[in-house]
Write a structure and sequence with these properties.
Layout: H1 2-25, E1 28-31, E2 34-37, H2 46-58, H3 62-75, H4 82-95, H5 99-112, H6 119-134, E3 139-141, E4 145-147, H7 150-163, H8 168-183, H9 187-200, H10 207-221, H11 230-245, H12 247-252, H13 255-279, H14 283-296, H15 302-313, H16 365-372
Antiparallel strand pairs: 1-2, 3-4
């Protein structure tokens, strides 16, 4: 009796397990506001073969699924389910890690069915592939050799932006391109890409992100007081515009502290130009730049340096400075300014002295002659 009960219990358990496995293999569709089981397709029909392809992917057999999908396309080249078969083939290639092959398959789908019901899904998959390439994933060449694919990722995103012009997909693609250039330290391309986004989508919720990062791209591209300060001036103007357009976001980004840091760096630039004129024997021209620092950047530490330089030139003419109020602390991520990837410094190269055409008040011939007198 006990043996009979044990056998019956085991049989019931096995039946339950089989029923559970069968339930897990079922597909569901959204119908009349609820998920309902899809009608079981008949074996040997296009619907049945496609169901088996989906099942192979779900069970972790992407290689078999890819072969079955290609076989389906060969057997039913004009069937309405070919769009889905191409999408499933792309999914199978992605599951195998063959991202470039997957992209080619999704492109095949989009070329054949540009307005199909599964087109947006395919574009979303292409976005994932592009972002993976930009993040460092390599593509396979000739099936075995792996090569960098960042340029391919950019091309994919540009194609998506063109194919979906004016849509949210296009916004995602364009921002992804700009963000990639920003992460890579390609400041000029980053700023251009963000500006292009704002021009195309001025009312987008992503425009604030683009405006702020464009300003930061100019900020980070400034190389130091021995170099042209145009990027710093541009960054300052853009940060001010951002603060005017997005005051709340500017507070979150601590733009006021960043602007103070820029003022300090601009003061350092004026100090550098003044010292350049001292080195070249033009103390009166140098004094003009030191006085600009005292008058316009008196709230920076460089004002004290400028006052000391003026005292050396003319002790009687040096102005008295008010006490300097300590500035608000700049954001922790305020960027340093080493040579960027776009403008690397050569090994052993000294930064050039400020060119004579940088100052706005170069000494006249008469002043130069007068300063040259003993």
């Amino acid at each position: 009796m006990k043996r009979t009960i044990a056998i019956l219990s085991l049989s019931a358990a096995l039946a339950a397990a089989a029923a559970l496995a069968h339930a897990q293999d079922k597909e569901f569709v959204w119908k009349d506001g609820q998920w309902v089981p899809r009608a079981a397709p008949e074996p040997g029909t296009p619907e049945g073969e496609l169901a088996m392809i989906r099942l192979q992917i779900d069970r972790g057999n992407p290689k078999k699924a890819a072969k079955a999908a290609r076989k389906f396309l060969d057997h039913y080249p004009a069937h309405a389910l070919c769009e889905e078969a191409l999408g499933l083939a792309g999914d199978a290639h992605m599951a195998r890690g063959h991202y470039w092959k997957a992209y080619q398959t999704y492109e095949e789908q989009l070329q054949a069915y540009p307005d199909g019901p599964l087109a947006d899904r395919a574009i979303g998959r292409e976005m994932q592939i592009a972002e993976a390439f930009l993040a460092g994933r390599k593509r396979r060449l000739a099936g075995t050799i792996k090569i960098p694919a960042a340029d391919d990722g950019l091309n994919i995103l540009e194609t998506i932006a063109q194919r979906t012009a004016g849509t949210d997909r296009a916004q995602q693609a364009l921002i992804a391109i700009a963000d990639y250039y920003f992460r890579e330290g390609k400041w000029t391309k980053a700023a251009e890409s963000y500006d292009n986004f704002v021009k195309l989508f001025p009312k987008s919720s992503r425009s604030a992100h683009a405006e702020l990062h464009a300003a930061e791209a100019f900020h980070r591209s400034y190389r130091g007081p021995s170099w042209d300060e145009t990027p710093l001036i541009e960054a300052e103007q853009r940060y001010k515009a951002f603060a005017a357009h997005h005051p709340e976001k500017a507070r979150e980004a601590r733009v006021e502290a960043v602007l103070h840091e820029i003022r300090s760096r601009r003061a350092a630039k004026q100090i550098e130009v003044g010292r350049y004129y001292l080195r070249t024997g033009h103390p009166k021209s140098a004094a003009r730049y030191f006085r600009v620092v005292v008058d316009e950047y008196g709230d920076t530490d460089y004002a004290r340096q400028a006052e000391a330089e003026l005292l050396q030139i003319d002790p009687l003419a040096a102005p008295a400075l008010p006490a300097v109020t300590p500035p608000a602390e700049a954001p922790p991520d305020t960027p340093p300014t080493p040579p960027t990837p776009e403008t690397p410094a050569r090994p052993g190269e000294e930064p050039p002295a400020p060119p004579p055409d940088v100052p706005t008040t170069r000494p006249t011939a008469d002043e130069a002659d007068e300063e040259a007198k003993p």
